[in-house]
Amino acid sequence: MRDAEPASKAKRARHGVSTRDRLIAVALKLFTERGPDRVTTAQIADAAGINEGNLYYYFKTKQALVLVIFDRFEAEVDRLLESPRRDSADPAAYATFLREWFEIVWSYRFLYRDFMSLLATAPELRRRIRAISARLRAPVKTLMGHMRAAGLIAISDEELDALLANVWIVSTYWVVYLDVQEGVRALKKAHLEWGIKQVSSLFTPYLTPLAREWLDAQAATT
Amino acid sequence: MRDAEPASKAKRARHGVSTRDRLIAVALKLFTERGPDRVTTAQIADAAGINEGNLYYYFKTKQALVLVIFDRFEAEVDRLLESPRRDSADPAAYATFLREWFEIVWSYRFLYRDFMSLLATAPELRRRIRAISARLRAPVKTLMGHMRAAGLIAISDEELDALLANVWIVSTYWVVYLDVQEGVRALKKAHLEWGIKQVSSLFTPYLTPLAREWLDAQAATT
DNA sequence: GTCTATAATCAGATAGAC
DNA sequence: GTCTATCTGATTATAGAC
Q: Which GO terms describe its molecular function (chains A, B) (predicted)?
């Protein structure tokens, strides 16, 4: 229960949102825009419409604020992992999983982009981000195995391992690539689609005629 | 001539290397280890065996030090691009190109890993890193076109564009992935080979029987 | 819970002697 | 070219009134 609310009832002065939640939201926004090292507690308090001293009432350190945001990231990943569809060999299930993962990566992209800064003040994050990666990778590998067993992809064991690593790299860093190298500041639907298309294209050459038929049918329906 | 030596002869007190070069080497090392924001000028001077004040004789600002390192990165890329082999459709030429690019990316990986910190103090770097990306991408695309024309890969125009982007993402971020997510601190030959294998595996499914024969023959020779 | 001070620290940078 | 000494500014964090 790291992310528990304070015992007393939080005030909901503005927009019906508690000050604490507003601080978290504003911090995430600023961290994403400029990176956590280039955002001061004064700026966060300012953007949240409160005084700097007051911020320290909610978060005793700046690092605590970062950790709470990381907790939320973790919670969203948990929710994704607990959703029931992951045992399916249905390509549509994979597509949904991928889209939701991409939305999470987009929202919390500063965690990957500015990871080194975060490590310096909170070394535990290395372990935690690796744990998340490992937990996410397992169902993806399972799913790829199911796709192969169902005759949707034709691929050797060795190729499958390499593909998995590439899926991992592209699905994590597509957003850093767009941000840093292409200067994309705000996620438009087109960018999300671009990322999904990139990861999908990793699979394309391995698809069997069966899978291609199915995909064509899907495309015709939509 | 951003990277020009001072007019006067530099002393080569230790190891036969000028203080200026020593500072650059030490700064690169520390930036790589901890990220530029977590390294102070005092620490750089210390590691170089000189006084902090003296550092400022060589580099008026910390940012100037970063920019000189970036200049060297740029120069290495230039050297790679000016090497004569890039018009060839010979896969071996591509393999060499890839390996040299990977060594550069490894050496200067902090530029990609800590890009946001750098941007904050030197916004011009966004333009410069994008320019480098664009210049590198052109010959790779040309080369892929040649490979297709020579009947080594079978791929549609659309697939080729997606492949190019994935090649770009993997060949830039494999090193950040190893560093941040796998905790790899020092480049061993095995890691370089791993990165090369990952990028190669992006091409594998598109290779024609002709290319596979050629590769098998190569493998037999080596 | 929120504010007004203000403390404590530390990094980047400069001046001037040697 | 190199050092010692110092300044300046910014930032995290605290104390205590309201």
A: DNA-binding transcription factor activity; transcription cis-regulatory region binding
Average pLDDT over residues B40-51: 98
Which of A43, A60, A77 is the C-terminal boundary of a domain?
A: A60
Task: Answer whether B177 sits within 8 Å of A169, measured CB to CB.
Answer: yes
Burial grade of B217 (CB within 10 A; 0-12, 13-18, 19 or more): exposed
**Considering only CB atoms, which chain A residues are within 8 Å of B201?**
159, 162-163, 166
Are residues B157 and B127 part of one domain? yes
One domain, residues A73 and A56: no
Of A114, A129, A166, the CB nearest to B170: A166
DSSP A172-188: HHHHHIIIIIH---S--
| Same domain flag for B88 and B159 | yes
Residue B112: closest C-alpha in chain A: A180
User: Residue A126 maps to which CATH number?
Assistant: 1.10.357.10
Element (H, E) at A64: helix A62-82
Does B67 share its domain with B101?
yes
B94-100's contacts with Cβ under 8 Å and 24+ in sequence apart are B94/B143, B94/B147, B95/B196, B97/B139, B97/B140, B97/B143, B98/B171, B98/B196, B98/B199, B99/B192, B99/B196
Residue A153's beta-bridge partner residues?
Answer: A207
Sequence letter at residue B124: E
pLDDT score recorded for residue A16: 80
Note whether B195 and B209 are same-domain residues: yes
Average pLDDT, chain A: 89
The answer to whether residues A167 and A125 belong to one domain is yes
B79 and B54 together in one domain:
no
Q: With respect to residue B4, please indicate whether it lies within any of the assigned structural domains.
A: no
H-only helix segments in B59-123: 62-82, 91-107, 110-113, 115-121
Range of the domain at A78: 69-221
Tell whether the model's pLDDT for residue A126 goes beyond 60. Answer: yes
Q: What is the pTM of this model?
A: 0.92
In chain A, the number of structural domains is 2
The chain-wide mean pLDDT, for chain B, equals 89
- Measured between CB atoms, does B120 come within 8 Å of chain A? yes
Question: What is the SS3 assignment for A198?
Answer: helix
